[in-house]
Design brief:
With about 250 residues, this protein is mainly alpha-helical. The protein has 3 domains: about 70 residues, Multidrug-efflux Transporter Regulator, Chain: A, Domain 2 (Orthogonal Bundle), CATH 1.10.1660.10; about 55 residues, Multidrug-efflux Transporter Regulator, Chain: A, Domain 2 (Orthogonal Bundle); about 120 residues, Orthogonal Bundle (Globin-like). The chain has 11 helices and 3 strands; from the N terminus they run βααββααααααααα. A hairpin with a 5-residue loop joins strand 2 and strand 3. The protein is globular, with a radius of gyration of 21 Å. The chain starts with a strand and ends with a helix. About 10% of the residues have low confidence. Keywords: Activator, DNA-binding, Transcription, Transcription regulation. It holds the Pfam family TipAS. One of its GO terms (molecular function) is DNA-binding transcription factor activity. This is MerR family transcriptional regulator. It comes from Paenibacillus soyae.
Length: about 250
C-alpha cells in the first residue's frame, strides 16, 4: 500500500502541515502509519477521509461536528457524498442567480435595461442560510451588545486606549491578509485580538469568537467597518478566527 508524507498531502490539498497536525491531535484524521522517526504517512483511505472532511468544511460544519459524524459507526460515506452534492448544487444555484442579478445590474447601471425593485434582489434568500442565522442568534448581536456595554462603562481614557489598541491590531492583521489565514503571523495577530476582547469583564468563548468572525464577513455593518483597514479584511478575519477557534478548542 502506497503512503504519502504529510508535506505531500499538504501540497496536494492546499492546506498547511500545521492544519493536518491539528486534525491528528484532535483525532479527526490520524495517519495510518508513523515512521520510527515520527513522520506521518497517509494512506488512500486517509485521503478519502480528508476529502470528506473538506466537503463538510465547505458546507460550514465545525470540526467537532465533523469528527462526530465521520467517526459514527453508522456513517455512510456514499450517502454523505450524495447529500454533499445536493447541498452544493443548491448553493451553486443560488450563486448563479446572484451572478445573473449582478450582470443585469451592470447593464442597468449602463442604461442598457431597466430593472424592477424585485429584480434587483433576485437570488438573495437568507432564509436558506441556517449558519448565519444561528451565528447571529447565539453569538452575534447579543455578544456585541454586551461587549459594547462593557466598553461604554469604561472611563474615557481607558476607552481611548482600548480603541487605539484595537486599531493597531486590525492594522497588523491587515498587513498579513494576502497570505494564509492559518499562518503563524495571522494566528499570532488573531490571538492578540481574542486576548483584547477578553481583557475586560466580558468573556468571549472560542465558539462565540468564531461566530463573531462570521458576522464580520456576513453582516455589511461589520464588513464596512472592518474593511476600512484593508479590502477583504473581514473575510480574512472570518477564516483566521475560525482557524484560531478550532485549533484552541
Amino acid at each position: 500500500m502506497r503512503t504519502v508524507k504529510v508535506k505531500e498531502v499538504a501540497d496536494l490539498v492546499g492546506i498547511s502541515v500545521r492544519t493536518l497536525h491539528h486534525y491528528d491531535e484532535m483525532r479527526l484524521l490520524s495517519p495510518d502509519r508513523m515512521t520510527d522517526a515520527g513522520y506521518r504517512l497517509y494512506s488512500n483511505a486517509n485521503l478519502e477521509m480528508l476529502q470528506q472532511i473538506l466537503f463538510f468544511r465547505e458546507l460550514g460544519f465545525p470540526l467537532k461536528k465533523i469528527k462526530e459524524i465521520i467517526h459514527d459507526p453508522a456513517f455512510d460515506r456514499l450517502e454523505a457524498l450524495e447529500l454533499h452534492r445536493s447541498m452544493l448544487l443548491e448553493k451553486r444555484s443560488r450563486l448563479d442567480q446572484v451572478i445573473a442579478t449582478v450582470d443585469k445590474t451592470i447593464r442597468h447601471a449602463k442604461g442598457e435595461l431597466q430593472m424592477t425593485n424585485k429584480e434587483k434582489f433576485e437570488g438573495f434568500d437568507f432564509s436558506h442560510n441556517p449558519y448565519e442565522q444561528e451565528a447571529r442568534e447565539r453569538w452575534g448581536d447579543e455578544a456585541m451588545e454586551k461587549s459594547n456595554a462593557v466598553i461604554g462603562n469604561m472611563p474615557k481614557d481607558e476607552q481611548s486606549a482600548m480603541s487605539d489598541e484595537m486599531v493597531m491590531i486590525f492594522e497588523k492583521i491587515a498587513t498579513v491578509r494576502k497570505g494564509s489565514s492559518d499562518s503563524e503571523e495571522a494566528q499570532a495577530a488573531i490571538g492578540e485580538w481574542y486576548a483584547l476582547l477578553n481583557s475586560k469583564d466580558y468573556h468571549y468563548s472560542l465558539e462565540a469568537f468564531k461566530g463573531l468572525g462570521q458576522l464580520y464577513a456576513e453582516d455589511e455593518r461589520f464588513t464596512r467597518s472592518v474593511d476600512r483597514f484593508g479590502d477583504g479584511l473581514a473575510e480574512f478575519m472570518r477564516d483566521a478566527m475560525a482557524v484560531y477557534a478550532d485549533m484552541n478548542a
